[in-house]
Amino acid sequence: MFTGIITGVGRIAALHDLGSSLSHGKRLTLEVPAGYLDDVGLGDSIAINGACMTVTTLHAEGHQFTIDVSAESLDKTCGLNKLGKVNLEKALRAHDRLGGHIVSGHVDGIGQVTHFAQVGESWELRIKSPASLGKYLAYKGSITVNGVSLTVNTVLDLSDGCEFSINLIPHTVENTALGALETGSPVNLEIDLIARYVERMLNNDASANSAATAFKAGPQH
What we know:
Shape: globular
Radius of gyration: 20 Å
Number of strands: 12
CATH architecture of the largest domain: Beta Barrel
CATH class of the largest domain: Mainly Beta
Order of helices and strands: EEEEEHEEEEEEHEH
Strand content: 35-45%
Number of domains: 2
Structural class: alpha+beta
Strand order of the largest sheet: 1-2-5-4-3-6
Largest sheet: 6 strands, antiparallel, barrel
Oligomer: single chain
């Protein structure tokens, strides 16, 4: 589990194919700030741009590690198949502060930046999400964008998706990889975990009520 509070900005420094077909994934080598891996061991989980990955090797020099990304993960995420900056977060420990919100590190969909511009001292970021995620977006609700826990400011339902806006303070722009976004950039989205369970419970209640109604209306013997 994670919180969406970025603990470092790294860089995908190298990509290596794990096979010759599209069913094979890639091995990524990531460079991180000095000391970032001091408390990291083999098999630990680190979220890379919001996608939970497993550390497979730690390089002797102490500022690089590798992960293996499956073809399925590459197909369902963005930003893990090219060189460049990425947001990093180590897995949550039981005694840590929950500074953002509960994040699983499982990407629910890929959004697209429709607007990114400075407004006063802050930045307005607008993202178009797949239509299937629109029902989970709410005013002042939580959303994870490339691993960063953020608060939704506005929601606009469209015929082919849902556009929402976020306000980024200078600290967030300067200390995450979000500052490199531009119009058209794809981003990893993870919906609020609580919203996911609420929908499941409501759907189950609706199904149960429908079944009960059908039973009562059935033929009497």
